Amino acid sequence: MEFEQAWLNYTKKGSCDMVDQLTYICVKAQNSGQDALLKSSVAELQRAFSGFFGRQLALCRSSEADKWDSKTEHGIYLALLEGMQPESYHVYEENGEITIEASDSRGILYGVFELIRQVQTDRARKGMKIFKAPAMPLRMLNHWDNMDGSIERGYSGNSFFFQNDRILVNERTVTYARLTASVGINAVVINNVNVKDAATWLITERYLDKVRELSDTFAAYGIKLYLSLNYAAPIELGELENADPLSEEVRNWWKKRMALVFDKVPNLGGFLIKADSEGRPGPFTYSRTHADGANMLAEAAAPYGGIIIWRCFVYNCQQDWRDEKTDRARSGYDNFIGLDGKFLDNVILQIKNGPMDFQVREPVHPLFGGLTQTNQMLEVQIAQEYTGQQRHLCYLIPMFQEILKFRTYVQETDDRVEDIVSGKTFGQHNCGMAAVANTGDDANWTGHDMAAANWYGFGRIAFEPELSAEEIAKEWIRLTYGDDKQVEEALLFLLMHAWEAYEKYTAPLGIGWMVNPAYHYGPSVDGYEYSRWGTYHRADHEGIGVDRSHEGTGYACLYREPNASIYDDKERCPDALLLFFHHIPYTWKLKSGKTVIQHIYDTHFEGVAIVDDMVDRFMKLEGKLPEKPYLRMLKRFLHQKEHAREWRDQINTYFYRKSGIPDEKGRKIYGGVR
Ligand code: GCU
Fold it and tell me: What's the confidence (pLDDT) of residue 672?
């Protein structure tokens, strides 16, 4: 399959004279020829400069450096120095030379990509001095790819890691690794968290040689390969009768298995596990806890430096909709809070950003700020499962930013989610952020060309959370489409309004869902209302929302103060989350001064108007953007325009029919004659 270079498309020429004069690269490191990362760094610089300026940078070793030291020729120095923070880098200009310094070769590679970015955005100038260190130790992508080549919640074609139960390693894998590393992502899980069939065999001789090949390919770009693991592997591989984490036999089985796996794939980072969730096996079968399960694996992986990432997405998916006491939102917290401090140091709990499931708006998961003695990782989803499936544009970085900045009040300072997952709050080093990936084998990688901004942005924000969503968007536009001002303005407007628009024309005020069951695309207000999944809106003719206050399920009280009191109180709860926390009459006045029902009508009309404006602005770029991506995007934007109307009309009609309250502004709502 054909594939494009996305933001590593090095045809865009920076206008900066200083870099134009650079003619060689000098590597100041011992055995630099052996270091795959340094080799990749040199190759990337050469590729970029030949793309920008049409000529190859020559390579010299440090011993030869003098001969280049003339007034007319200037170089780029890649120097390994002791004493800097892991993965951090310095990039600076002095007397026409550029130096990239780091303590490790990953830092050098990141410095190289920084320099390339600077050139592409015309910021590589005389006197330039940049120092960067990643905020989060683990910056990870979770692919939900199946070995038959399909992708769970994949919206960009098939897998490029697997086909017909085989692992693929090819040119596309290398380009993927370059793209991923260029934004500082240092860990990748290649297979779906729902580990079934052939994927259970990834930890056996059947696949380990190929896993090794892939892990070496990744390692050359500083990326550690991880695998999702089937908790019941000892049984499903036909070797044991049970998977009880406290059984000696089971524990020994895992020890032997880990010895084999790490012997074959020494570079492997570790494993991601979804257990006791949505039908996946886990320790509950044996009346054991998640700590028992995770620690058994952690103990077996520890001698090899292996990390066990254990997901907290655990809830009862066989709920009775008539049962108003059970609250899915509580389940992650209730299942894990009592285990705080019971996990080994090489276990990380991976927590979804919200308590439900990647809705367009959710409160931050209360385990953040709840757990104080356990390694934690934030899980977000750039695969747009509930946010338009990469047919609608939804730039998610502004949402991630809000989540990262959320104050948990677990202590007086350094208490934001960002501080927790950076290791600042509790001094942890096994922590970070993971995103469920949005890539596939489509030529443009992400289905919607502009969905690549979420992949790009995720890496950038995990490395440098202080960057603004807008800065990241600008960078991505510039790198991908060059420096045309009109293109930049239009695409920036689209990206920065997309989440707001999507939220406005879909489920209102934090209630979420209202999608077609199973595939989660398009409106279906009652789609999940009488199902077993625990995702209800409880609308009747007077009002809507779930009472999660102390009088309801008590979920609001799981937060630390003052968050708990704010969420618990209808009057103080932010409008955006009101229906998540409370059952509210349609006539209730929001902080905006509007009633709930009028807010629903207004936002749905506004959401569509924003999309119309977005599409108009986009269409003015005809002839300014390369034709292929323009046409691909146009198709999606025209669909989004239509589909946003479908959302608007179904939601507005539903609430008009339920409430009988007309729109103050008399707009068309399909309520029939009353
Ligand atoms: C959602 C999604 C599933 C996925 C699950 C998970 O429920 O729809 O496809 O397996 O999340 O995160 O494990």
Answer: 65
Task: Spell out the alpha helix ranges (H) of 506-595.
Answer: 563-568, 578-581
Total length of the chain: 674
Q: Tell me if 357 CB under 6 Å of ligand 1.
A: yes
Per the structure block, which two tokens stand in for 656? 């008009």
Indicate the CATH number of 482-546+583-674 among 3.50.30.40, 3.90.1330.10, 3.40.50.620, 3.40.50.2300: 3.90.1330.10
Give the relative orientation of helices 171-182 and 105-120 as an angle to the nearest 10 degrees.
80
Q: What is the token pair recorded at 165?
A: 């139960």
Q: Are 637 and 618 in contact (CB under 8 A)?
A: yes
Residues 6 or more apart from 48 whose CB is under 8 A from it?
10, 116, 119
Whole-angstrom Cα Rg for the chain: 26
Residue 144: how many CB atoms within 10 A of its CB?
Answer: 22
What pLDDT sits at residue 385? 98
**DSSP readout, 374-443?**
S-EEEEEE-S-TTTTTTTS----HHHHHHHHH-B--SSSSS-BHHHHHHTTTT--SS-EEEEE----SST
- pLDDT greater than 70 at residue 17: no
Enter the tokens of residue 209.
């040689």
**One CATH from 3.30.379.10, 3.30.1490.20, 1.10.150.120, 3.10.310.30 for 6-132:** 3.30.379.10
Backbone phi, psi, residue 459, to 5°: -60, -45
Residue range(s) of every CATH 3.90.1330.10 domain in the chain? 482-546+583-674
Is residue 101 within 8 Å of residue 429, measured between CB atoms? no
Higher-pLDDT residue of 61 and 99 is: 99
Average pLDDT score over the chain = 96
Q: How far is the CA of 319 from the centre of ligand 1 (A)?
A: 16
User: Which residue lies with its CA nearest to atom 7 of ligand 1?
Assistant: 357
How far apart are the CA of 533 and the centre of ligand 1, in A? 12
What residues are labeled active site?
Answer: 278, 357, 385
Report d(CA 134, CA 121) in Å as an integer.
21
Question: How many angstroms separate the CA atoms of 419 and 489, rounded?
Answer: 33
Contact assessment for residue 97 and residue 46, using Cβ atoms and an 8 Å cutoff? no
Q: What is the pLDDT of residue 63?
A: 60
pTM above 0.85, yes or no: yes
Q: Is 313 in the pocket of ligand 1 (CB under 6 A)?
A: yes
Q: Note the pLDDT of residue 67.
A: 58
Start-end of CATH 3.20.20.80 domains in the chain: 138-481
> Considering the domain 138-481 in this protein, what is its CATH number?
3.20.20.80
Index of the ligand 1 atom closest to the CA of residue 385:
8
Q: Is 193 in the pocket of ligand 1 (CB under 6 A)?
A: yes
